[in-house]
Amino acid sequence: MHSLITYQVDDSLALIGLARPPVNALGQPLRAALLEACELANGDPSVRAIVIHGANGLFCAGADITEFGSPASFAAPDLPGLLLRLTRLDKPVIAAIGKLALGGGLELALACGYRIGETNTRVGLPEINLGLLPGAGGTQRLPRLIGVAAALDMMISGAQVAADRALALGILDRLAASPEQLLASACDYARELIASAAPVRPAEPFAEPAKDLEADFFERYCVEQEPRWKTRLAPRLVFSAVQAACLLPLEQGLARELALFKQAEASRQSEALRHVFFAEREAGKVPGIEASTALRPIAKVAVIGAGTMGGGIAMNFANAGIPVTLLERQGDALDRGLVHIRQTYAISVKRGKLTDTQLEQRMALLSGTLDYADLADADLVIEAVFEQLAIKQDVFRQLDRVCKPGAILATNTSSLDVDQIAAVTARPQDVIGLHFFSPANVMRLLEVVNARETAPEVLATTLKMGRTIGKIPVVSGVCFGFIGNRMLEPYAREAHRLVLEGATPAQVDDVLTGLDLNMGVFTMLDLAGVDVNFLVRDANRAAIAHDDSYCRLGDELYSLGRYGQKTGRGFYQYEGRQRHNDYEVVALAERLAGELHIPRRPVDDKEIHDRCLFMLINEGIQLLDEGIALRASDIDLVWINGYGFPAHLGGPMHYAEQIGLDRVLAGIRYFRQTLGDYGQMWFTPAPLLERLVAAGKTTVERI
Question: Of 37, 234, 267, 445, which has the fewest beta carbons less than 10 angstroms from its beta carbon?
Fold first, then answer.
């Protein structure tokens, strides 16, 4: 038997084990081996039932993603054909699902007549996260098994379903008492089926999926979901495939599903999402960090500052079961911070995401103090105080005095020089930047700022800790704003300048959200705080360089006390969270344009897109050239997970490749020539961009 499969016959049962570590991905070699084993069992008269299981405990995490978009994806035996053959075997087939059955793994289980899991089993169809849909029968078999509404919810969300829920839905027929007993329980189940002369495949609970649906079900579902789908293709293809399950016989539905899958696989959106998938795995590969690099133990964490950011950071560690001490200067500020954390957890309880017991367990891991001496035993200390260099340096001087040798000292600065912060300590090798994004307990991005003297084991430890608390850690070098905020500067600059030239904040934001960005520049500034943006910019005007008159509009709003949502007025007016255009801002822009001698004119949407996005891209390419970012895909992760850039566009660097690097360069050169002194000042192509285009390159890389 093939090395990718284990095969044995045990008392009338053929036990077929998937043995392609680490996750039994269903690439062509494993598909071929599985088909061979199933045919062998089907043709053996001594075998009366077949049990398919994971030889090392895990069933199957899905297709081999590296095959997508290549001929191997449908190399014989292709997965749809293999699973169709499984449904036509003459003997009952039982899937023993250990740990995971995801994507193609769940489709394999659905092709089996019977399914048994264990207490830790999780199942799901997450193909939508790769811009795909289940393409091996999932969209046709799952609605017939659990009903249309439940099946759609699983496929559109891509969420994993726990064992007890899978049992209640009918995805699983039984649960073994423990993972260790799964295979034995599956064999017992198979023998029961033989003894009772059970059919090879049981009747489907929803054999006619459309039968009990309300007449307008699909119409209503589409109307409800459209605002979430925006321009994403995959949800619409899932929707069409499930409609086919309701309208067509199974075999015709499978053919329709396959055609839709191939459409999705060939799409730019799926290509972009697969790029993001691999980017997340590449981000952990850092020069100088090896598997053998020693890690420092992190058993206790301290956070300086119990405000919104500090409290959110602390929650990440409490969520992971790590005790945290919060330090504040004033008792009332500390009390407010702990109360706010409890209130945030209480919202999760109300939404059913936490239990009351879990809330209390997490709060029990949080303690407060007003005394730096209480941080003496912390393994990791994260400073989250006001964004001013002198204040942060003072905090680090105190940490240097009280923290034990080997403690990692991290700053949450979003823009300041981590080397200057480290320099005030006697242990710069222990200092690192950990830039959490707000709200810190929700946002997945963690910019890990590798300072000049940061020790390799400190970097390795914080990268591992970032993953432990559910973040996507991305390494950045030291510069103003690191990767994300440095790129934000030219992006936001063009948005401000375009309003001075004649656009409105709403027009600029609408162009950006039309690309499916979570929000436009001005909505983002109003949400984060016009005051916060002003103070950061004001503290770093020297780093921004050149003439900063483009941001006069933001400066004026700050001076007027219009700080955004929290004051009810910023670039927009607010009633609660309801946003309205404010023509006083347009009038203010007109006045400032006159004072600055900026001609006003109608601005079209294409110019807004090109100026904002091309300068964002240009800055990212410059960061790559400088070595601040290790790879272009790291930049994409920062902007997807920290700034709401749509994942189905792949991030700004991947988006540049889809637009064409030559077109980006031509656009920058065009604005440099047509925007007068302003264009000459700001529209300078990154030298790396020029080299890439001159070399005929189509991907963003160092050359």
Answer: 267
Record the tokens describing residue 112, joined without a space: 């089996």
Handedness of CA 157, 158, 162, 166 (dihedral sign): positive
Provide the pLDDT for residue 537: 77
8 Å CB contact between 459 and 446:
no
- pLDDT higher than 90, residue 678: yes
How far does CA 168 lie from the centroid of its chain?
A: 29
Q: What is the largest CA-CA distance in the chain?
A: 92
Intervals of CATH 3.40.50.720 along the chain: 301-476
CA distance 305 to 436: 14
Report CA-CA distances (Å) from 257 to 61, 138, 265: 21, 9, 12
Q: Is 590 a catalytic residue?
A: no
Half-sphere exposure (Cβ direction) of 1: Cα atoms closer than 13 Å = 22
Catalytic option among 39, 67, 127, 556? 127
Contact present, 582 and 572 (Cβ < 8 Å): yes
Q: What is the 3-state secondary structure (H, E, C) of 463-513?
A: HHHHHHCCCEEEEECCCCCCCHHHHHHHHHHHHHHHHHHCCCHHHHHHHHH
Give the model confidence (pLDDT) of 241-275 as tens digits.
999 999 999 999 999 999 999 999 999 999 999 99
| pLDDT tens, position by position, 353-366 | 999 999 999 999 99
Distance of CA 32 to the CA centre of its chain: 33
Interatomic CA distance for residues 578 and 573, integer angstroms: 8
pLDDT in tens, 168-201: 999 999 999 999 999 999 999 999 999 999 999 9
**Whose CA is closest to 122, among 174, 180, 205, 61?**
61
Distances in Å between the Cα of 169 and the Cα atoms of 173, 232, 334, 653 are 9, 28, 45, 42
CA 283, 286, 289, 291 dihedral sign is positive
Q: Which CATH class is domain 301-476?
A: alpha beta
Active-site position among 39, 67, 107, 257:
107
pLDDT per residue over 314-342, tens digit each?
999 999 999 999 999 999 999 999 999 99
To which H or E segment does residue 122 belong?
A: strand 122-124
Q: Are 156 and 181 in contact (CB under 8 A)?
A: no
Residue type, 525: L
Length of the chain measured in residues: 703
Q: Is 1's pLDDT higher than 60?
A: no
Grouping H, G, I as helix, E, B as strand and the rest as coil, residue 601 is coil
Q: Which CATH architecture has domain 5-265?
A: Alpha-Beta Complex (3.90)
Q: Between 484-501 and 632-643, two packed helices, what is the crossing angle to 10 degrees? A: 70
Cis omega (within 30 of 0) on the bond before 143?
A: no
Q: What angle do CA 19, 25, 27 make, to 5 degrees?
A: 100
List the one residue out of 189, 48, 47, 37 whose CA is nearest residue 108. 37
Q: State which H helix or E strand residue 542 sits in.
A: helix 541-544
Would you state the structure tokens that stand for residue 443, as one six-digit string? Answer: 């946002």
Asked if CATH classification 1.10.3720.10 holds for the domain at 484-694, the reply, yes or no, is no
The DSSP code for 548 is -
Residue with tokens 């053959």: 85
Nearest to 17 by CA among 1, 28, 162: 1
Residues of each domain in the chain carrying CATH 3.90.226.10: 5-265
In the chain, CATH 1.10.1040.50 sits at: 484-694
498 with 486: CB under 8 angstroms?
A: no
User: Is 107 known to be catalytic?
Assistant: yes
Answer yes or no: are the C-beta atoms of 602 and 502 closer than 8 Å. yes
